[in-house]
């Protein structure tokens, strides 16, 4: 039985139908990546799953304990970094847990900084730490790695993968990086016209960047996103 | 009413709630209170109040029992507005010193010169009546003079700085203006008019008057005694007042020198007649919104 | 651990014709109900004698008084005088408050020069400076305009400064890098960002305007509803006292409606005022 | 087209020991200079006879009066009475204003019930309801507390609502998704976000408190600086009138210093209040 | 002679020295990409060049007419999308120019939308349009493509390249995408310890994703950023 079940979900803004009878299921412990053009409705879907926006039609079933990493960091400017991470945690252990989460994202030194003093990537990592320090049943990630350099990004990938294998939440990751999607996810979806246009199970061989299945899946996904790229060098 | 509790204490002692103004000789001297205490009446002072109207309201709404001996004009209007109050005492004073004054270099030497000028008066009070009466007496058309409504605290600086040309005002501010600004009297109430329009007055709720006649008599008698003392000892009385008003000595001397005698009495036939005459004048001049029959609102005790 | 709890806000059982997005509370109905109920309760209490007429006359009798005074032309006359004074004073006060507020909000130097003085001056209640106003302006209209301007200027000043402080500095930077000059920057970024706050300043200022008038019209004013109120107080005309209060309440109501309309007009973009999703 | 123009703000010629980041304007110096200069000018004008003493006495003579009244214990007594009333009234008014403001800002239903009534009531100047207050509360302290509470509650209410409206809805959503309950959400996101606005409401409320006292202390108050002012006006004691005005100014100054300290304390994070870069 | 000259630029935040005697020159018409770890000071440098922040030491020479695309979109929420693009332009042609710029970023349909209704990538594109519609001598771009899907990103690349060949501004592009840096820039810099750690001229052959020079440069840059990746499949 699936943790997340969305069926025939519809969402309109005025004339425009952004989600148009979308179906989606995610199992417990499953890591799903969602690709799609800018403005195709990924964030809208995520917000509906998070329970932040109502939908105009269809049904949604989601677990109670959800956490979202938004496209923007959304740190409280009036709380120091560590309190932002610790927000809502039981007091006794809050500081310690926040500190160790910050250590994991490489920002333990910034624990007592104000959020305004963080760089773009640092803020994004704090937001990630804030989500990971909780142990949700559903983790919704909206481009959490977009502002990170290659190395930091790899470290964050490792972090998320660790967490998901440990606590096995259902994960929905919105990303624009096809490689990232393949390397992290069990299943990669592409979205178009308000629906899930295609789904690809990721075989474990495909997780190797140098492998042929990786290149093939990458090519297929880019094709679905409308990018035609030469395959020859694979 | 529910004022039983307020009017009488345990052990047959009575309690009266008296309003007072910023200057109150009875309250300050203490003799008044002792006199009443000896007669089994405890005094609670409520106030201070700036003028008669809010004390009337305090009485009407049963937060006090006696209004504070102020002007009869707002009392008349309050009665016309349906408040259930009655006159229980009234006073007249001699000489009546209220005057219209002007600055020495204003070029105003008499009432006739007021045409085309601005005169400060307190709205619907002594100041306005005096001006109206003065203009009538000297046949100056009312609309040739600008009535500028100002309460004394605001009128003084306006007068002193020449923003108004003349000021119709009573004792106290009058002498101060004379001393501070060198103002000259161009029309004096007692010298020029044969009738008093505005009187001192005490009012109580009508049900209180019915039930507590004896208490009222004792209180008014005590007030009258205080006034008699003040009449006999003008210098001491002024001294008490001046602890609050802090007028310059020259002003105090002037006030003492005028030796104004105020006579209080319980409401009697003369009081009703005089109050009625004053009220009629006010009604005729549209100061009061309607005719009033004082006898209906006065209790002879 | 439950795997398939159904989340409250996300539950949508086969939404049909009426989408569940519609606001649940019929705002208007409720917001008018309470004042109307209060009015009815007051009338009933008066008629049943629960409230004595000389303490608080019934709304209907206040209505009668209002009608009388309107017939004689007295009420419209007073009202008009006061409205005129409020408008002129407010126009002056709002302009000064806005300009000073923009200066203070915009420049540290201006703030250093202006702010402390304003904080000092605004602490002085109008009533206390009435005698000085008399000396400075005499007893004409100008003194009354001055008092109203004084009373209205401060909330507008303070709220303008607050509003400007709260404008996102990131937007100001953006304005600078696209090459806006100061005036354009004010027009594009600062005023719109500060607008909710400035509009609130205006609301507060309007209240102060009426309060200032009550005080200003005790001084040398031959008309105005403040004058009317003072007179009524002086003569214990309870029905007029209450009528004046009702008038103020109506003025407050009208002001609120106008302010809301302004907000609807100018803050259409603001997600917390009307519509908007994120 | 010039290829190598040197941009104004970016130009930094070999910055040495003193970094050019330091604030150019010595804020404190300037902000105190103006009030002090005004005071000096006033004193000079008075001494030189430019201003007549019975219109506006010199600061030094006001100082003497203040000293006298302090020696006799009169001034401290009046001041203490007023401060006590202001404090009690403000405590009540601020609490009510804050609670109602949070309700309105937070819930559409509460807004529908509360807001219009408050908008109506707050339009009624205190002075106009003085007679009713006497009816309701008599002439004791409670009526004065009521008036102060009434005067202080509205700016706090309005500014609280404004502050809450301006809290970034994105942060509220964040609060919801990390599982905060309502109270935690208020504590974590709403109050801190609304704080600049609430503090401004408090500033405005303090002014209103003193104004309310001037009015409340005209009736039945045997002490207080409002009473002192009324008396001084009544008996034309110009030096006391001016002393009272100076007192209010000092109160304003103190209030401002306290408010600034509060802002420094609570808004340390706010780039537009103190420090911060982006 | 260079349009941008920064020499020995230093910038400190409290104890920390973020820019530490940094030297940088950019010629007219030159396209420079800047890579570096999250928090290494890229945005700080950009802001200094934009004249938004003072520096603690060193000298800066930059042209008067600069435009910045910030890491966040910074659209005025109270102006419709087209006015945000047209901000500061002469009135007469403003609407038309904004409209055509929006068309170029694929958002002509959103010209009359409020900024809050835009998706993350749409907002970023509007910000890009706002910068491109002006014709600056120095264009500073802080991760302008981070929130874009692959296809849209390619289109935006084309757009920026067009503009730069037409008006020849000096361009400094901060990005985390090594491929993007190589494909767009004439020179790729990496930043570390508050300085420019390395500079690579990009030969035109390297612009071909399938080519060996591309793979080599990519490998070198990733190495400088601390990422070790297998080269074998090149
Ligand atoms: N409140 C709104 N009103 C009107 N249209 C909206 C609103 N919110 C979003 N939209 C539109 O809905 C579409 C989908 O938005 P959404 O944020 O889901 O896109 P997305 O897939 O997350 O895009 P991106 O990758 O750029 O973040 C966009 O075209 C956007 O303009
Ligand atoms: N106002 C400030 N006060 C203190 N430290 C600051 C301030 N602004 C930035 N910093 C610190 O300076 C460092 C450099 O910040 P900067 O924004 O330049 O990084 P960046 O290279 O742009 O990183 P990213 O790729 O994550 O955006 C960061 O570690 C940041 O925490
Ligand atoms: Mg999105
Ligand atoms: Mg950055």
From TrEMBL, chains A, E:
Domain of life where this protein originates: Bacteria
Q: Name one GO molecular function term.
A: ATP binding
Matching entries from SMART domains are given as: AAA
What region holds the ABC transporter domain?
Answer: 4-218
Q: Which UniProt keywords apply?
A: ATP-binding, Cell membrane, Membrane, Nucleotide-binding, Translocase, Transport
> Which Pfam families does this chain map to?
ABC_tran
Extract the InterPro entries matched here. AAA+_ATPase, ABC_transporter-like_ATP-bd, ABC_transporter-like_CS, ABC_transporter_ATP-bind, P-loop_NTPase
Official protein name in the record: ABC transporter ATP-binding protein
According to its UniProt entry, this protein's organism is: Paractinoplanes globisporus
Q: What is the lineage of its organism?
A: Bacteria, Bacillati, Actinomycetota, Actinomycetes, Micromonosporales
TrEMBL record, chains C, D:
Q: Which UniProt keywords apply?
A: Cell membrane, Membrane, Transmembrane, Transmembrane helix, Transport
Output the InterPro entries linked to this UniProt entry.
Answer: MetI-like (IPR000515), MetI-like_sf (IPR035906)
Compartment(s) where it occurs, according to its Swiss-Prot or TrEMBL record: Cell membrane
Question: Domain ABC transmembrane type-1, which positions?
Answer: 79-259
Note the topology in the membrane.
Answer: Multi-pass membrane protein
Which Gene3D superfamilies does the UniProt entry name for this protein? Answer: MetI-like
Report which residue ranges the record marks as coiled coil.
Answer: none
The keyword Transmembrane helix appears for this protein: yes
Q: Where are the transmembrane segments?
A: 86-107, 119-139, 145-164, 185-204, 210-228, 240-262
Hey, which family's this protein in?
A: Belongs to the binding-protein-dependent transport system permease family.
PANTHER family given in the database record: ALIPHATIC SULFONATES TRANSPORT PERMEASE PROTEIN SSUC-RELATED, ALKANE SULFONATE ABC TRANSPORTER-RELATED, MEMBRANE SUBUNIT
- What is the protein's name according to its record? ABC transporter permease subunit
Species whose genome carries this gene: Paractinoplanes globisporus
Phylogenetic lineage = Bacteria, Bacillati, Actinomycetota, Actinomycetes, Micromonosporales
């Amino acid at each position: 039985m699936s943790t997340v079940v969305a069926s025939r979900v519809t969402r309109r803004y005025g004339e425009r139908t952004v989600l148009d009878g979308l179906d989606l299921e995610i199992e417990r412990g499953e890591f799903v990546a969602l690709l799609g053009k800018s403005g195709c409705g990924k964030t809208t879907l995520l917000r509906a799953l998070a329970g932040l926006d109502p939908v105009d039609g269809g049904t949604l079933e989601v677990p109670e304990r959800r956490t979202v990493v938004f496209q923007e960091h959304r740190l409280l400017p009036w709380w120091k970094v560590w309190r932002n991470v610790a927000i809502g945690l039981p007091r006794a252990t809050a500081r310690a847990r926040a500190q160790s989460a910050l250590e994991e994202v490489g920002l333990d030194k910034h624990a007592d900084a104000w959020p305004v003093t963080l760089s773009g990537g640092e803020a994004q990592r704090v937001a990630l730490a804030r989500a990971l320090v909780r142990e949700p049943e559903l983790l919704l990630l909206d481009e959490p790695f977009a502002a990170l350099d290659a190395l930091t990004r790899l470290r964050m990938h490792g972090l998320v993968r660790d967490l998901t294998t440990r606590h096995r939440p259902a994960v929905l990751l919105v990303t624009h990086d096809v490689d990232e999607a393949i390397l992290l996810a069990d299943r990669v979806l592409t979205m178009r016209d308000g629906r899930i246009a295609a789904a690809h199970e990721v075989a474990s061989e495909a997780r190797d960047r140098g492998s042929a299945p990786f290149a093939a899946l990458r090519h297929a996904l880019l094709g679905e996103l409308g990018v035609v790229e030469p395959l020859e060098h694979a | 009413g529910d004022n039983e509790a307020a009017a009488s204490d345990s052990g047959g002692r009575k309690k009266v709630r008296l309003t007072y103004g910023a200057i109150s000789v009875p309250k300050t001297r203490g003799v008044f209170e002792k006199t009443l205490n000896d007669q089994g009446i405890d005094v609670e002072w409520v106030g201070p109040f700036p003028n008669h109207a809010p004390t009337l309201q305090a009485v009407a709404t049963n937060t006090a029992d006696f209004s504070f001996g102020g002007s009869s004009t707002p009392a008349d209007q309050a009665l016309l507005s349906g408040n259930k109050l009655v006159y229980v005492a009234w006073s007249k004073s001699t000489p009546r010193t209220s005057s219209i004054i002007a600055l020495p270099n204003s070029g105003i030497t008499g009432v006739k010169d007021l045409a085309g000028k601005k005169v400060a008066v307190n709205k619907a009070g002594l100041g306005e009546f005096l001006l109206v009466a003065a203009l009538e007496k000297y046949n100056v058309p009312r609309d040739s003079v600008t009535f500028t409504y100002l309460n004394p605290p605001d009128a003084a600086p306006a007068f002193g700085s020449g923003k108004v040309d003349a000021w119709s005002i009573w004792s106290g501010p009058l002498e101060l203006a004379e001393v501070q600004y060198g103002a000259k009297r161009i029309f004096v109430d007692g010298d020029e008019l044969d009738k008093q329009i505005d009187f001192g007055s005490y009012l109580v709720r009508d049900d209180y008057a019915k039930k507590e006649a004896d208490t009222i008599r004792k209180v008014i008698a005590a007030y009258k005694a205080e006034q008699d003392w003040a009449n006999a000892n003008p210098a001491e009385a002024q001294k008490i007042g001046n602890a609050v008003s802090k007028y310059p000595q020259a002003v105090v001397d002037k006030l003492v020198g005028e030796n104004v005698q105020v006579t209080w009495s319980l409401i009697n036939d003369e009081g009703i007649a005089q109050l009625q005459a004053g009220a009629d004048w006010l009604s005729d001049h549209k100061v009061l919104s309607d005719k009033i029959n004082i006898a209906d609102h006065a209790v002879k005790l | 651990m439950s795997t398939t709890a159904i989340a409250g806000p996300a539950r949508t059982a086969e939404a049909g014709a009426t989408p569940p997005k519609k606001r649940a509370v019929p705002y208007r109905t409720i917001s008018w109900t309470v004042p109307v109920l209060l009015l009815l309760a007051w009338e009933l209490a008066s008629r049943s004698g629960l409230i004595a007429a000389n303490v608080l006359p019934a709304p209907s009798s206040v209505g009668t008084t209002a009608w009388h005074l309107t017939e004689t032309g007295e009420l419209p006359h007073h009202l008009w005088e006061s409205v005129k004074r409020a408008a002129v004073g407010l126009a002056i006060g709002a302009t000064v408050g806005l300009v000073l507020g923009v200066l203070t909000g915009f420049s540290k130097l201006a703030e250093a020069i202006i702010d402390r003085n304003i904080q000092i001056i605004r602490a002085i209640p109008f009533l206390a400076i009435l005698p000085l106003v008399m000396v400075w302006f005499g007893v004409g209209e100008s003194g009354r305009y001055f008092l109203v301007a004084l009373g209205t200027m401060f909330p507008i000043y303070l709220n303008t400064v607050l509003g400007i402080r709260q404008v996102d500095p990131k937007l100001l930077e953006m304005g600078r890098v696209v090459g806006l000059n100061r005036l354009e920057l004010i027009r594009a970024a600062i005023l719109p960002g500060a607008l909710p706050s400035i509009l609130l300043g205006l609301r507060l200022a309007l209240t102060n305007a009426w309060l200032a008038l009550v005080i200003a019209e005790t001084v040398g004013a031959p008309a105005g509803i403040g004058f009317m109120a003072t007179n009524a107080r002086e003569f214990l005309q309870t029905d007029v006292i209450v009528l004046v209060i009702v008038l103020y309440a109506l003025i407050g109501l009208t002001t609120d409606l106008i302010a809301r309309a302004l907000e609807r007009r100018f803050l259409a973009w603001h997600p917390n005022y009307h519509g908007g999703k994120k």
